[in-house]
Amino acid sequence: FLQDLIAMVHKNYNFGWMLRDLRKSIQMELDFVNEARNGERCDEDMKHFKYVHIPKVYHELTGTRVLTCEFIDNACKISDIDGIKKMKLSLKEIDTKLFEMFSYQIFTTGFTNVDPHPGNIFVRKRPRSNDLQIVLLDHGLYETIPEEIRYNLSRFWEAIVLRDHELMKIYSNKLGVADHKR
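RE: above sequence
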């Protein structure tokens, strides 16, 4: 209400949308039944990536204000370079697999985690083997990217890789970005 009131008085003040978006995000983030559903959908979408692990949800102990999941041990945050080196995991392999799995979410399924940060991504050696495992935590905030946007974004990405400035311009305009060079 205060944001809207200020916007009426001061015509150049236009931050009410930010508060509305923040409120929506906080509501989603604090609904743990929603988070459990998102995690399970992510798990289903990523099941062919054997290196991705989503902690199992214990539904009988979960409600809108409490989320109970499998405990993840012998792991470190993706930003803990010393911990990764102690486990003798490859930084290059981690980087490649992160790129692969998040690209899959963005370009293929469209169901995309919009809160991936070092506190939500752990790495470890897969139990019973020495293979890399990436553990994704915190599934409270997801967005579904429409197919048309995914298509235009993939074509824009392709244009960047090919250094095709004309296609960059075309697909950035389709994505609502007027200046593709910024």
